[in-house]
Amino acid sequence: MKTKLTTLILALSAGLALAHEGIELGPNKGRILEFSTNESMHGEVTDKDGKLHIVLLDKDKKPVKAEAQSLTATAGTRQAPVKLEVAKDESGFTIPVPKEGEWLIMQYKETESGKAITARLHYDTGKCAPCGNPEWRCACGEKEKK
To answer: Residue 48 belongs to a domain with what CATH number?
Structure first.
């Protein structure tokens, strides 16, 4: 019993230690989401004035004008999804901030007839103890790898 309990504690600790692994921050310290299958297009998500701003970035993390691209966004629960209003300008997209703890599901299209790429973000605003950033924007795991 003691061995099983120790194994469980170690497994949970490892999961917490790696919780931020794979999160990448962009040039504006926003969360990078993949908007392509070959890493040629990214979206950098930042928050300001109660809205999420998604700037389009190329493979070198340089800004791309939003022209033919489109984005749809859904938040809420599986049982009660809510489609969010997406505003577009030449730098990217703006959407309302989802409720705390909700998943934000975005579908990005390079062109109107293009295949949709789905990106997911768990909107957790709790503060990360080591870095002080909101959990949805924390990249402590990235810092540990370097």
So the answer is: 2.60.40.1080
